[in-house]
């Protein structure tokens, strides 16, 4: 039965032909052939918003086939909040495989760390967060920001993660494969050693899919870096309400934690007892763009 399925692929040379928005970081990176009885699940990020046809092409029996469906891409949405973590899981699986095939580089390791911390997923390079809680307050920002810790600035990268050597290699490779294949929220829940499972033990909290540590009464996102510009707004001010409306993806964490610091792509947002009370429409739009990493 299996031999019959793989002998006759339903669709080969699959490509995404078009979409009403710009798709980026699509996983899997190389779209596999589709065989009878299988399904192909893709995850991607997108820029912009709109409604239109999302089309896929492929070859079947020597002919090019095209399939299209109308899709809606909102600017932001709180629905299906588990989807970003599935995308991140696929990305981590892909990056981990790169480490195994090509060896670690400073930029590759940093990308793994940032993705794992941002989405609360396990990785060999962030295991210290849950294994040694006392290191969190002292080293997380230094490790990510480059002031201390092992950020590979001025020092060569390690030959491989600790779990990539010896008996842990097989288990680590299996976890990376499960990450690459994750398609449902249940797949994420089955990943061994997820940060949610041990966050409380390590003195951290998960909120809205983000990992935070308490520092001087402020919940600071673990992925936050001192190298990123900081904007501070006053809790429950007009500026705070405007930001929560413009960034609904972080509103649940802000409502749950109160005083916090959020890590964006090009800007950090800190909510505290003192800070900006109003934002002009232009300033607000700029903060939102920088937080999401959107090109103006």
Give an account of the 3D structure:
The protein has helices at 2-7, 83-102, 106-119, 128-131, 134-145, 168-181, 185-190, 195-199, 238-246, 251-257, 281-292; strands at 9-18, 22-27, 34-35, 43-47, 50-60, 63-73, 204-207, 210-215, 218-221, 230-234, 260-263, 268-272. It has 296 residues and is α+β, with helices and mostly antiparallel strands. The protein folds into 3 domains: 2-73, no CATH class; 78-198, no CATH class; 228-296, no CATH class. A 6-stranded mixed β-sheet has the order 7-8-9-11-12-10, with helices on both faces. A 4-stranded antiparallel β-sheet has the order 3-1-5-6. Strands 2-4 form a two-stranded antiparallel ribbon. Strand 5 (50-60) and strand 6 form a beta hairpin. The model is unreliable at 130-164 (pLDDT under 50).
